[in-house]
Write a structure and sequence with these properties.
The protein is 79% helix and 0% strand. The protein is mainly alpha-helical and 301 residues long.
């Protein structure tokens, strides 16, 4: 049970919860609408989609992770490859069945292709023939889509037939904002990825450039989220939390960039890894900053 939980990456669920809650709050008419079968269905579906992506990634990277992510690799090997594959297939099936049920109940039939697209795209991030993790900057687009954009679109479709453009802009901005943080985290794996022949986005950009691009994405995404929230309603002091979170992340990224610029790769990676351990905290702070703003938008309707 412990190993089965490990390959589902529970440490990221705190940051994943707002991915469901943000569009839910912004699509709901009032707080009473949040506590409903729609929310339960959307949350469980999103949770299954995230689980599928994490399981197949742990399975595909079980040998690559043996050096620096021993916990993940060990969990796969203790469970056995066949066991993990069955868990992956059952998770995929459960997501498709639930997505189909939600499509029937809501009459929003595009939920079915959206769920299938999410599952296929998530799979192709980790495995061949596309293996988008090793396709340079395609990795950035893929992570934006499979972690943030598609799950948030799926949640909006559970609630409404036509989400407003302001919400679509918020989803795009939120995706860019959070992927900027993830890009920096990807940079710490450059030596192992290069050794394994994986041309990741960070390897394509170079470590210092990856940090700079990540900071630019945080800035652009943060501005887009702020403007979208203001267009959707009154986020009030919630924007302060978002501003503090984004400011903290940008401060950290600026310090990392100054430290690694011009350094040999081995030295730069050694400088990057300690602050990169705070990546889950950065993602969570930003997520809850946007979530608190969305809650205030709903409360002021």
């Amino acid at each position: 049970m412990r190993d089965s939980l490990t390959i589902r990456r529970p440490e990221f669920m705190v940051a994943a919860f707002p991915i469901v809650m943000i569009p839910t709050l912004l699509m709901a008419a009032d707080f009473g609408a949040v506590v409903s079968w729609r929310f339960v269905g959307a949350f469980v579906l999103a949770y299954l989609l995230f689980q599928f992506g994490d399981i197949i990634n742990c399975l595909a990277d079980r040998d690559l992770d043996a050096k620096y992510k021993v916990r993940l690799s060990g969990a796969v090997h203790r469970l056995g490859v066949a066991n993990v594959r069955w868990q992956m297939r059952l998770t995929w099936l459960a997501a498709v069945v639930l997505g189909t049920l939600l499509a029937v109940w809501t009459r929003h039939w595009d939920l079915i292709p959206l769920v299938v697209l999410e599952l296929l795209w998530a799979a192709q991030y980790s495995v061949r023939p596309l293996h988008l993790k090793a396709r340079g900057l395609w990795q950035v687009l893929t992570l934006c889509v499979i972690i943030f954009t598609l799950p948030m679109l799926i949640v909006t479709r559970v609630y409404a037939a036509a989400p407003p453009w302001e919400l679509l802009t918020l989803i795009a901005g939120y995706s860019v904002l959070q992927e900027g943080v993830i890009l920096v985290n990807t940079a710490e794996d450059i030596p192992e990825d290069a050794e394994a022949g994986l041309r990741t986005s960070a390897l394509t950009l170079g470590l210092a450039n990856a940090v700079a691009v990540g900071a630019a994405m945080v800035t652009v995404g943060g501005v887009a989220c702020t403007l979208s929230l203001l267009a959707l309603g009154d986020p009030s002091w919630g924007l302060l939390g978002l501003g503090v979170a984004a400011g903290w992340v940008l401060w950290e990224l600026a310090a990392i960039w100054i430290a690694v610029r011009g350094k040999p790769l081995e030295a730069a990676v050694a400088l990057l890894r300690p602050p990169a351990r705070r990546m889950p905290a950065w993602l969570t702070a930003i997520a809850w900053g946007v979530l608190s703003s969305a809650a205030l938008v709903l409360s002021h309707r």
